[in-house]
Design goal:
By secondary structure, this protein is mainly α. The protein contains five helices and no strands. It starts with a helix and ends with a helix.
C-alpha cells in the first residue's frame, strides 16, 4: 500500500508546484502590464482608512453612475425602511 501512496504524493507535489509557478508567472505578468497601478498602490499605502473609504466610495458611485449627493451622508430612507418590512 505504501508503494501506491508514494506516486500519488509525488503527483500531488508536482501539481501544486506547477500551480504555484503558474500563479507566480501571472502575478509577474500583471505587474509588468500595470506598473502605474502598482506604483499608485505603493504610494497610497500610507493613506488613512477614512480617505481610502472615500476613494472607493467615489469610484463605486462613478461605476454605477449614481449622483454623488444620493450616496453621501445618511442612507436613503427608502432603503432603510424596506429593510424592516
Amino acid at each position: 500500500m505504501t508503494n501506491q501512496i508514494e506516486p500519488d504524493i509525488g503527483r500531488t507535489v508536482e501539481a501544486n508546484e506547477s500551480r504555484r509557478q503558474k500563479v507566480e508567472a501571472e502575478r509577474t505578468e500583471r505587474e509588468k502590464n500595470e506598473p502605474d497601478e502598482e506604483e499608485s498602490v505603493r504610494d497610497a499605502s500610507h493613506l488613512s482608512a477614512k480617505l481610502v473609504y472615500q476613494v472607493v466610495r467615489r469610484e463605486g458611485d462613478e461605476e454605477r453612475g449614481a449622483p454623488e449627493s444620493r450616496c453621501s451622508g445618511q442612507p436613503s430612507r427608502r432603503g432603510s425602511a424596506s429593510a424592516f418590512r
